[in-house]
Design a protein that fits this description.
The chain is mostly helical. It contains 10 helices and 2 strands, in the order ααααααααββαα.
Length: about 250
């Protein structure tokens, strides 16, 4: 079965597995270098907009993403060709990273501005963060709600990892190409058509993202990947470009 996978899907799968294995022995180094850090964190590097797609936070995380890649990406690559699939996949992943970073930047600066307005020194605050030290949440809670201080610290120190953003783009493309396909998934007790399933999970991410619930999931990265996937599929279909192969 592995030999039958198309080239791009197979290559992405192998790269993710190899990097995941490497993190089991060199976790601190790998996460520090390849995860997507907040843009003002000293660990941030522009290559992380791509490299974070090959990092995962655990076995269940990589298992779900790679299963989705194989299940939904393989039929797309067989229709589009290797190069077109790679372009789509990495565009969706980078789009996910950009939206995630932009939303984090907004939340971070909103929290900083609230603290500064309450009398906390911006310079001292950034000095502590840049040094890598944890914030005194209880102390900052005297000036702003605890959730604001926690949001500030979590945004600055928690990196994003995973292929989920790119995979969400693939899911959107699959729903475009095979809208009537019925999917049977663990958390749905009955088959549901792709054209209904994909919008449903994106709406779930939008809800959790807007309500800013601490789920440990980069919801806006998922939305970013889905959004870029939708834009590309809409443009390709509108311009009769969706039927062209890139070999």
């Amino acid at each position: 079965m592995f030999q039958q996978l198309p080239d791009a899907v197979k290559g992405i799968l192998i790269a993710n597995i190899l990097i995941f294995v490497a993190t089991l022995t060199q976790g601190n180094l790998m996460y520090g270098l390849l995860s997507l850090w907040f843009i003002e964190n000293p660990n941030f590097g522009y290559w992380q907009f791509v490299s974070h797609m090959f990092m995962h936070g655990g076995f269940a995380h990589i298992l779900f993403n790679m299963y989705a890649l194989v299940a939904f990406g393989s039929p797309l690559e067989r229709v589009w060709g290797r190069d077109k699939f790679l372009f789509f996949y990495f565009s969706a992943g980078i789009g996910a990273a950009l939206l995630h970073t932009g939303v984090n930047y907004y939340y971070f600066n909103d929290a900083v501005n609230q603290l500064v307005a309450a009398g906390v020194s911006r310079f001292d605050l950034m000095e502590v963060l840049s040094s890598g030290k944890a914030l005194n949440i209880s102390y900052l809670g005297q000036y702003v709600p605890i959730e604001v201080a926690q949001q500030l610290q979590g945004t600055f120190f928690t990196p994003a990892v995973g292929a989920s953003g790119a995979v969400y783009g693939v899911l959107v493309a699959f729903a475009f190409m095979y809208s009537e396909a019925r999917l049977m998934l663990l958390f749905f007790p009955f088959p549901i058509k792709a054209k209904y399933f994909v919008p449903l999970i994106v709406m779930g991410d939008l809800y959790f993202g807007i309500t800013n619930q601490n789920t440990g999931v980069a919801h806006f990265a998922h939305i970013g990947g889905a959004l870029l996937g939708f834009i590309m599929m809409w443009y390709w279909r509108r311009n009769s470009f969706n039927n062209n192969r890139w070999d």
